[in-house]
Amino acid sequence: MKEMTLMVLAAGMGSRYGGLKQIDPVGPNGEIILDYSIHDAMEGGFNKVVFVIRRDIEQAFREAVGAKWEKRVAVEYAFQELNALPAGHGVPEDRQKPWGTGHAVLCAADKISGPFAAINADDFYGRSGFVQLGRALAENADPVRHFMVGYPLRNTLSKFGSVSRGVCTANADGTLKEVTERTKIEPDGADGAVAVDENGAKFAFTGGEIVSMNFWGFMPSLFDGLRGLFEVFLREHGSELKSEFYLPAAVASMIGAGQASVGILESQDSWLGVTYREDKPRVQAGIAALVESGVYPSPLLA
After folding, report:
1. Which domain holds residue 106?
2. How many domains does the chain have?
3. Which one of 18, 143, 280, 284 is at 20 to 30 Å from 294 when CA atoms are compared?
4. Is residue 155 within 8 Å of residue 235, measured between CB atoms?
5. pLDDT for the residue numbered 302
6. Low-confidence residues of the chain, pLDDT below 50?
7. In-domain check, residue 103
8. Is the dihedral of CA 181, 182, 185, 189 positive or negative?
9. Is 30 left (phi over 0), alpha (psi -120 to 50) or beta?
10. Model pLDDT, residue 14
11. CA-closest candidate to residue 234, choices 88, 54, 107
12. Is residue 185 within 8 Å of 162, Cβ to Cβ?
């Protein structure tokens, strides 16, 4: 069986939640969002998990998350550290901010030998995206062909405030052309949405536009491209204290340079995330409905 890895970007987990102990359960038996993502990935054919974390949360993460899964699937840990840099580069004095999601992926490169998915630790993506992505990666023979799972914009909005989303534009062959970041997106009261940019300009959306939620499928060739782009980033921004090397921007650069193509897979599932505190009941209700309909067993980890 081909090794297919789920890479979970979790280095920011402690800081976002104020400590791992504050990761709120969303399932009926105390399950967290990440439990459902790993479960769905295994259903989609992924047979290994690499958690990208920080050294300072290792013990807490292993106890709160890793221990539940180490007996069910092959698990490894990679560490995103500020000093994990190419030769000739150093960490600026006073820099504390991580180098970004592109750097996080590079930190796990030595744990990956085949196709892999990369996801955020705290987003609920739904079953269909993992199934589609697992099939696409298993069947893919092009070393520079990658994939992105996108969602209709209307399935990713919050009723309690604005969100930022990467709106995707496709080429005629269905591959990704570009991702345009739009901020302050809110439902329009019907089925669409409205965004306002930094200059006050408004953009209307039907709600059917496909957006990126940082759910990627990659071939291992990605690492070579990332390494080169990270070197460029460090030369241009390595002395700064807050600049970050973002994965979507790096992928866009590779597409623009003709070094990669990205197939768009569309999931009709609802993406669920807790952007605002008031979003949590919606996430809990959404998962409860999936449990009730038989999509997930309860408890998830018997």
Report:
1. 5-150+210-292
2. 1
3. 280
4. no
5. 79
6. none
7. yes
8. negative
9. left
10. 64
11. 88
12. yes
